[in-house]
Write a structure and sequence with these properties.
The complex is a heterodimer of chains A (330) and B (327).
Chain A: E1 2-6, H1 7-21, E2 25-29, H2 45-49, E3 54-56, H3 61-73, E4 77-81, H4 92-99, H5 102-105, E5 115-119, H6 135-139, E6 145-147, H7 152-164, E7 169-173, E8 181-185, E9 200-203, E10 208-212, H8 215-229, E11 234-238, E12 241-243, H9 247-257, E13 260-263, H10 272-283, E14 293-295, H11 306-312, H12 316-326
Parallel strand pairs in A: 2-3, 2-4, 4-5, 5-7, 6-7, 10-11, 10-13, 13-14
Antiparallel strand pairs in A: 1-8, 6-12, 9-11
Chain B: H1 8-35, H2 50-57, E1 65-69, H3 73-78, H4 83-90, E2 114-118, H5 124-138, E3 144-149, H6 156-167, E4 172-178, E5 181-182, E6 185-186, H7 187-190, E7 206-211, H8 215-232, E8 236-241, H9 259-266, H10 270-282, H11 284-307
Parallel strand pairs in B: 1-2, 1-3, 3-4, 4-8, 7-8
Antiparallel strand pairs in B: 5-6
Helix pairs in contact in B: 1-2, 1-10, 1-11, 2-8, 4-11, 5-6, 10-11
Classes of the chains: A alpha/beta (330), B alpha/beta (327).
Bound molecules: thiamine diphosphate.
Thiamine diphosphate (TPP) is lined by residues 71, 119-121, 149-152, 179, 181-183, 248 of chain B.
């Protein structure tokens, strides 16, 4: 039996189920407890699990991210919430130099089973410092896993998998997705786990492949509708995991369509999108009938002005246009 | 010649002298091996500061935790890491504590609860607080000792960690080894105050401050803080005044201090002081015999490090992720 629940509720269920299952799991972050979560992801958890396991932290991202890393090294399973991923910049050193390194530096003696999570990317007119897509910085780092689900079901299944993973996992949500509803199996049907490292074809098609993740998967779905109206059949590969990357699912789709567009919200320079393009051209060169194109956020800090902000973000029309270009129809 | 029977203190002093001397000799061999090109990268020696790590760690239970900076050889050895594992690691060998992947700055030993040396100044202090956080969460009664230089006191992570440790009453002792210089910068040019322990005041944290000239005093004073951590779950900031006899690292030209200053400090060497006190009770012969034993152990460790195999590239992926590599 499936129910429709919101993305934030799916995340909450994942956290609650894992906390119920494993007493080593706790969540720490700003306003996660008594305030019920800045974006209400943790609503109700404080009352249910108490202050030992739902821990309100002061504004000290470097400090509490580091606390999480240390606790993970000696047997706990922390979930560290960043109010938004923008603020992870002041904790970057803890993730880059400690979480991603302790296993290697210790010759495999210690590991760091921790989840860093929070909303990522643009919200609405929150300006340049609060609109950044941070996933690329983290996907760059060996030792980390990076996931960015687009749908409530995947959000739940991936978060549960991330909490159980023995490695540090960076989990990217989106404020603009929190209220979105979607089908999620009832907990009575058993544990919903989505394997990290597996992409999902969320829309089948035959003429062109669109690779995307997180909020932009929904933009790609709109683009696919517009394309369908013009008789073009687009297939959408929703990556879900950015590291590891599911090469096989991407290539399988490209083998079918022979054309690919990669769409994402973050900046173009050296992004996960660039990595995807490299893999497609390197591993699928013979299957391609056109160069792979990208639709990305504009290569500028996000402006506050509403129109300019929309101008900077990937829109369905831009994805449509890129698809037509790889089909040599434009 | 008549000698008074050894008191408990003298017994302990002999044990701690042995540890300090082992560290000193290993460090000297490291310097030599570095000059011969057998050790690469950065090398930060603990010579002159041995009484801090040895005295402090002597106040611990075996299951307590130690975390430090890149100046970690002495801490690792005091926590129980064998000289062979230290030297093999510095030589980049497969039998090193971290299989040759960590090197001098990153000595880890899960068995002895040595949770590593870290290379980003101050970056390990929140992590140490997290280890103490876990001890409190798990109720295992363990105390964490976190070592750092006074250079760490100027960076944000130090303050965030102290702030949180005080707020959440974590069982941890923050030990600032104030050796007067952060690389070439004397204390007066990096901090606006001379008494580093005062930094605890803003966090309503207990504090202490003393010179590390007597290893037994270090043990006793850190012991008070360890008791506070274990019994009251309260953190302490302890500033231990010390001095490094060698450069910051092997590449330090040392122009920021005079040879006279270093010579004057060497006259206060806590290691020599411990030896002199022991000789007065036990006689030179007994100490010479112990030194010879340590000499042999050190030579064995160097030989082991030289002969040990190199790690294979096969270990790179499995030591990056648990399970399958995420590519
Ligand atoms: C964040 C950071 N900045 C700079 C450095 C380079 N660095 C390494 S050690 C050091 C001096 C630290 O001195 P102190 O904290 O007094 O410790 P000591 O070396 O005396 O033990 C500096 C500047 C670093 N490793 N990390």
């Amino acid at each position: 039996m499936s129910r429709e629940i919101r993305y934030r509720e799916a995340l909450r269920e994942a956290i609650a189920e894992e906390m119920e299952r494993d007493p080593r799991v706790f969540i720490m972050g700003e306003e996660v407890g008594r305030y019920q979560g800045a974006y209400k992801v943790t609503e109700g958890l404080f009352d249910r699990f108490g202050d030992k396991r739902v821990v309100d932290a002061p504004i000290a991202e470097n400090g509490f991210a580091g606390i999480g890393v240390g606790a993970a090294m000696v047997g706990l399973r922390p979930i560290i919430e960043f109010m938004t991923w923008n603020f992870s910049a002041v904790a970057f050193d803890q993730i880059l130099s400690n979480a991603a390194k302790v296993r290697q530096m210790s010759g495999g003696q210690f590991s760091c089973p921790i989840v860093f999570r929070g909303p990522n990317g643009s919200a609405r007119q929150v300006g340049s410092q609060h609109s950044q897509s941070m996933e690329g910085f983290y996907a760059h780092v060996p030792g980390l896993k990076v996931v960015a689900p687009a749908f409530p079901r995947d959000a739940k299944g991936l978060l549960k998998a991330a909490i159980r993973d023995d490695n540090p996992v960076c989990f990217f949500e989106s404020e603009t997705l929190y209220s979105m509803k979607g089908e999620v199996p009832d907990p009575s049907e058993g544990d919903l786990l989505v394997e990290i490292g597996k992409a999902n074809v969320c829309h089948e098609g035959s003429d062109v492949t669109i690779v995307s993740w997180s909020r932009i998967t929904h933009v790609a779905l709109e683009a696919a509708k517009l394309l369908a109206a013009e008789g073009i059949s687009a297939e959408i590969v929703d990556l879900r995991s950015l590291r590891p990357l599911d090469e096989e699912t991407i290539l399988e789709s490209v083998r079918k369509t022979h054309r690919a567009v990669v769409a994402h919200e973050g900046w173009p320079y050296g992004s996960v999108g660039a990595e995807v393009v490299d893999r497609i051209q390197r591993l699928g060169f013979d299957d391609l009938d056109a160069p792979v194109l990208r639709v990305t956020g504009m290569d500028v800090p996000m402006p506050y002005n509403a129109r300019l902000e929309q101008h900077c973000l990937p829109q369905p029309a831009a994805i449509v246009s890129a698809c037509k270009k790889v089909l040599y129809l434009e | 010649m008549f000698r008074a029977p050894m008191s408990e203190d003298q017994d302990e002093l002999l044990r701690l002298y042995g540890q300090m001397q082992r560290i000193r000799r290993v460090e000297e061999e490291c310097a030599r091996a570095y000059a011969q090109g057998k050790i690469g990268g950065f090398l930060h020696l603990y010579i002159g500061q041995e009484s801090v790590g040895v005295g402090a760690i002597a106040a611990l239970r075996p299951d307590d935790y130690v975390i430090g900076t890149y100046r970690d050889h002495g801490l690792a050895m005091a926590k129980g890491m064998p000289a062979r594992a230290v030297l093999a690691e510095l030589f980049g060998k497969a039998t090193g504590c971290s299989q040759g992947l960590g090197g001098s700055m990153h000595l880890f030993d899960a068995e002895h609860h040595m949770l590593g040396g870290y290379g980003i100044v101050g970056g390990h202090i929140p992590l140490a607080a997290g280890v103490a956080y876990a001890s409190k969460y798990q109720g295992n009664g363990r105390v964490t000792l976190c070592f750092f230089g006074e250079g760490s006191v100027t960076i944000g992570s130090f303050h965030e960690a102290l702030s949180l440790a005080a707020l959440w009453k974590l069982p941890i002792v923050f030990i600032c080894e104030n050796n007067e210089y952060s690389m070439g910068t004397p204390l007066a040019r990096s901090l606006s105050l001379e008494d580093v322990s005062q930094k605890a005041l803003g966090y309503a944290m207990a504090r202490d401050r003393f010179f590390a000239r007597d290893v037994l005093e270090v043990k006793a004073r850190i012991g008070e803080a360890v008791t506070r951590a274990r019994e009251e779950s309260e953190p302490t900031l302890v500033e231990v005044r010390t001095y490094r006899f060698r450069g910051h690292s092997m590449s330090d030209p040392g122009k920021y201090r005079t040879p006279e200053e270093i010579e004057a400090q060497k006259k206060l060497d806590p290691l020599q002081k411990a030896r002199d006190a022991l000789v007065a009770v036990l006689g030179e012969e007994k100490l010479a015999a112990l030194d010879a034993e340590i000499e042999a152990e050190t030579a064995d460790a160097v030989k082991h490090a030289e002969e040990a195999p190199e790690p294979s590239p096969d270990i790179l992926e499995p030591t990056t992720y648990v399970g399958e590599f995420a590519r």
